[in-house]
């Protein structure tokens, strides 16, 4: 007798959404407890720590090494709890107004690659004036 769900089983997407919701709650809890500092969008006074869509998660953080280390710990904890693995080889760090040396240190710590704006996410161009982007 086999355990688990087969790929394509109708319950698989629902279970995945339930598990990824745990990541959302873990991130929110760490922000509330001060372990993760959100990025402050000053113009609108919005604190932004993460966005999720399906199996994609975008993390936002200020230039604070403690927050970055805590993000890494949280993600490793999520991997152990859920049995899912985060593919850091497919992960990218996109920095805005940061020194290159700092960006390289963070990429090493997070085991990810560096990317620059213009980036396409969910078929949307990020970081560019959409009126100037050729389709």
TrEMBL record:
Pfam families recorded: RVT_1
Domain Reverse transcriptase: 1-107
Classification via InterPro entries: DNA/RNA_pol_sf (IPR043502), RT_dom (IPR000477)
Cross-referenced PROSITE patterns: RT_POL (PS50878)
Protein name: Uncharacterized protein LOC127740579
Species of provenance: Arachis duranensis (Wild peanut)
């Amino acid at each position: 007798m086999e355990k688990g769900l087969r790929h394509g089983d109708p319950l698989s997407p629902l279970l995945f959404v339930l598990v990824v919701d745990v990541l959302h709650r873990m991130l929110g809890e760490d922000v509330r407890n001060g372990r993760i500092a959100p990025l402050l969008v000053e113009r609108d006074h919005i604190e932004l720590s993460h966005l999720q869509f399906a199996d994609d998660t975008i993390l936002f953080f200020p230039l604070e090494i403690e927050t970055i280390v805590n993000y890494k710990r949280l993600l490793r904890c999520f991997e152990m709890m859920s049995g899912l693995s985060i593919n850091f080889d497919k992960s990218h760090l996109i920095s805005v107004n940061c020194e290159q040396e700092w960006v390289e240190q963070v990429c090493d710590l997070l085991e990810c690659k560096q990317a620059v704006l213009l980036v396409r996410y969910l078929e949307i161009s990020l970081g560019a004036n959409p009126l100037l982007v050729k389709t």
